[in-house]
Amino acid sequence: MKEITIAELGENMVTAISKEWMLVTAGSVESWNTMTASWGGIGFLWNRPVAFVFVRPERYTHGFVECCERFTLSFLGDAHRDILNFCGSHSGRDCDKAAATGLRPLATPDGCVMFEQARLTLQCRKLYRSEMQAAEFLDPKCLERWYGPGEGQSLHTVYVAEIEHIYTR
Ligand SMILES: Cc1cc2nc3c(=O)[nH]c(=O)nc-3n(C[C@H](O)[C@H](O)[C@H](O)COP(=O)(O)O)c2cc1C
Question: According to CATH, what is the number of the domain 2-168?
């Protein structure tokens, strides 16, 4: 793995997040959990490069992200679609995701978890969290579509986090 700067991250991260998907991972190599996410973004806030992610409270990963100061975003590429499918449809409460998928965790220098399979990893430090509120939706269609009775799930917790380190292969 080599480290690059945000200026060297010359790819379309909207495409990477929405089409390739990413793993949101928190914890230490001794105890961690990961889940697939395709909602989120990369931007610039409070004069820092930031990532923002949206995690529903019922995810097992939510507790890890809540407790940890940092999390990572891992991009595995299309060759590992099977891992992303598994981690997006099974909970770490019920299975061992590393054993089931072959994901190989590695510690970053700060003790966060990244994966040998990742082509790109962003290590992020949480700056802000907020629970989405139904009353704040300006377009009710978004609320109905993604949080309506059919969905049966809670509103997301939003995390904004500083991108501290970027590792590539
Ligand atoms: C393509 C895809 C994208 C997803 N994006 C998100 C997301 O952005 N936020 C979220 O809370 N869940 C998202 N999920 C659902 C979680 O990945 C899924 O519920 C997972 O099993 C949670 O695992 P956990 O309970 O071990 O945390 C996504 C699932 C898939 C397949």
Answer: 2.30.110.10
